[in-house]
Fold:
Amino acid sequence: MTVLAISPNEEDHLFLTNIFSHTNWQLRAARTWHDALGMLGRQRVPVLVCERQLLDATWKEVLAGLSHLAERPILIVASRLADEAFWAEALNLGAYDVLMKPFDATEVFRVVSLAWLSWKNERERQADRQLVAGDLARAAG
Structure:
């Protein structure tokens, strides 16, 4: 299982690496959205943790870019400025959750784990729908 963290801050990458070093999760790190896109093209990534403002994109641009991927990761936005208005905006636009910075290890692990379960459950629902559609097509033909 892979988490991709997009942040220009080395301390974020180090902190997240430390959190996930005690789990079966693999952390991949990118400093820019451009770098992250390259990784997303090569590897299955269920969960993406993205800084609110990157060097080359905003979290909204990342969210829009994810919608073009065949297997869309779940987006979690990280921000030092995460008031209720920002949290509501992020969820309403399609982010899974917002993580406050500085990170709390327990909260990061909880949110990422729940995001992964949501991603996994959606893949299972898609597979079930494809099976039903195939059965219906065979029955009709």
